[in-house]
Design brief:
By secondary structure, this protein is of the alpha/beta class. The chain has nine helices and nine strands.
């Protein structure tokens, strides 16, 4: 049976501490027909050397470098532009997939007929200690659901771009992934969630996603300037976002 190519997009920036584990989790997949497009965003540490060494030993790993630091949206979009697979998925340089992530995602698409799927995941600190309970995703999410809370993490989104088309992320400082999911969810009824955890999301100290000082400002800007929602709807979705964000990280 034919095994379609899966394009994995990984942006990196000073990721020398974690990138080896991330790449090995891809190499350990039970599904083997993949390309891993690693786009370095101007690292100043040994990230490039590590990636180049893996690329030299595994032709499925494609190394790209940006001349100047341009942010994760630009790096991911370079990966998207170079993707040649039927399927497109993302894995950040500090996260880890379980061995059956790709196989399970493709099986789910084939069984459900839904061409955008995503999985639950475990949540750890930098040293892979599980400091929060597993994040279990809903069985389906719609456009409005994502505006209330983004249940689709970049490390488990899996999209059939042969069917749904190739789209790029808005080149904004934050919420780029959410912007991409919403583009697809404007055109399809829902994305399908896989309840079994299939990845590990590493929560790092001082990460952008954990910096609450600017969080609400970015979210408001996203509603108003990216999705072009009016003030009333932006306030409505913001209130949902704040409440669900509290629930998400309380245990």
């Amino acid at each position: 049976m034919e095994s379609p190519l899966v394009s994995i997009i990984t942006p990196t920036y000073n990721s020398e501490k974690f990138i080896t584990e991330t790449i090995k989790s891809v190499q350990n997949q039970t599904y083997t027909n993949w390309e891993m497009i690693i786009v370095d965003d101007g690292s100043s540490d040994q990230t490039n050397s590590i990636v180049e060494a893996f690329s030299a030993g595994d032709s499925r790993i494609k190394a790209h470098q940006l001349k100047i630091n341009s942010g994760p949206a630009k790096a991911r979009n370079v990966g998207i532009e170079n993707a040649k697979g039927k399927y497109m998925t993302f894995l950040d340089a500090d996260d880890i997939w379980f061995p059956d992530f790709i196989e399970n995602s493709i099986d789910t698409i084939n069984k459900t007929g839904v061409h955008f799927v995503f999985s639950s995941y475990r949540r750890s600190d930098e040293n892979l200690n599980f400091i929060y309970s597993d994040f279990i995703v809903p069985e389906k999410v719609t456009y409005r659901d994502i505006l209330k809370t983004n249940s689709i993490s970049c490390l488990t989104a899996f999209i059939d771009i042969e069917v749904l088309g190739k789209k790029t992320m808005p080149e904004i400082f934050k919420r780029q992934d959410m912007g991409l999911w919403l583009q697809y969810l404007k055109e399809i009824p829902f994305a399908h969630g896989i309840q079994a955890p299939k990845a590990i999301y590493r929560i790092r100290k001082n990460s952008l996603s954990r910096n609450k000082t600017n969080l609400l400002k970015y979210q408001w800007h996203f509603y108003r300037k990216v999705e072009n929602l009016n003030a009333f709807h932006s306030t409505y979705f913001m209130l949902h976002w704040m409440y669900r964000g509290f629930i998400k990280y309380r245990n």
